[in-house]
Design goal:
Layout: H1 3-20, H2 35-55, H3 63-86, H4 92-112, H5 118-146, H6 165-170, E1 179-180, H7 184-187, E2 196-200, E3 209-212, E4 217-222, E5 225-231, E6 239-243, E7 246-252, E8 263-269, E9 274-283
Helix pairs in contact: 1-2, 2-3, 4-5
Pfam families: DUF305
Protein name: DUF305 domain-containing protein
Keywords: Membrane, Transmembrane, Transmembrane helix
Length: about 290
């Protein structure tokens, strides 16, 4: 067997292993190129080269080439292992592109596992909600940071204080607040009947924003509370909805839209918190 054929076999296997690492993502819109997964695939390819050559030494007669392959594979393995563990080449957008497929795996396993214990089921449900929210937020931040729309600081909760359990229950940490998925039955407690539009973090989840086209009202759920919103002024950045202390702005992505997202939602509190998500905005047919 020729060394060229051996090299092509290792290269093909490396590419196939890289592709296989994406097959356990929950949805295709969660597939992003990942530097870390690339390094992992190359590391596995180097390992395969050593194992396969060791088993097939009798088929390859050049001692120099065999030694060079063993040494080269060991160097590649050590280098890619260092790149994976140090993350020295991974920037903010690259980090998020790697994390989205990772979060997607958590959604897939949490949703499809055969869970019977209600405690475990509750944990799995909370994981699904958290991962979907973070995926939508990372899609938004990838676009922001890639466009160099960076910020110097973000909202920070005040320092912790000594208090009672009642104080802890009554106190909401502003930095952790975000619109929660809201079933239609909850939206109907606020919105009048008629055509509605919704913003979803993912096609499979309940919307985090409901709007009524006729009345201009909107509804979201914040920290377990159903909050009515009124239509604000439409701007070039999209159209907004407001309530005391909060503004929610939806912007269709237009030419930026793709199969991963067609709109973005920015949630802003007067205290200074601002969080953005990329997802899907659709309206009922009239």
């Amino acid at each position: 067997m020729s060394y060229i054929r051996f090299g092509l076999m290792i290269l093909t296997s490396t590419v196939v292993m890289f592709i296989l690492m994406y097959l356990n993502t929950y949805a295709w819109e969660h597939v992003f190129f990942s530097e870390t997964r690339t390094y992992m695939a190359i590391m596995m390819g180097a390992t395969m080269a050593v194992i396969m050559l060791a088993y097939m030494l009798g088929m390859y007669s050049s001692k120099r080439l065999n030694i060079a392959i063993f040494v080269g594979a060991a160097v590649v393995f050590a280098l890619t292992l260092w790149l994976v563990r140090s993350q020295v080449t991974v920037s903010g957008p690259s980090y998020m592109r790697a994390m989205i497929p990772h979060h997607s795996i958590a959604v897939m396993t949490s949703e499809r596992a055969q869970i019977r214990d209600p405690r475990v089921a509750k944990l799995a449900h909370e994981i699904i909600l958290a991962q979907r929210r973070e995926i939508a937020e990372m899609r938004y931040l990838i676009a922001e940071v890639s466009a160099e729309n960076t910020v110097e600081s973000i909202y920070q909760d005040p320092p912790a204080e000594v208090g009672t359990v009642e104080d802890a229950i009554a106190r909401a940490l502003i930095s952790t607040l975000d619109p929660s998925p809201m079933p239609e039955g909850e939206a109907e407690q606020i919105l009048a009947t008629g055509p509605r539009c919704v913003f979803n973090l993912s096609p499979e989840s309940d919307p985090i924003l409901w709007t009524a086209e006729k009345s201009g009202q909107a509804a979201m759920k914040l920290n377990g509370v159903l909050v009515p919103l009124e239509a604000g002024t439409e701007t070039e950045n999209g159209f907004g909805f407001t309530a005391q202390g909060v503004t929610v702005t939806v912007r269709p992505l237009g030419d930026e839209s793709d199969w991963r997202a067609d709109a973005e939602l920015v949630f802003e509190l007067d205290q200074g918190l601002s969080v953005g998500y990329r997802g899907f905005y659709k309206c009922e047919a009239r």
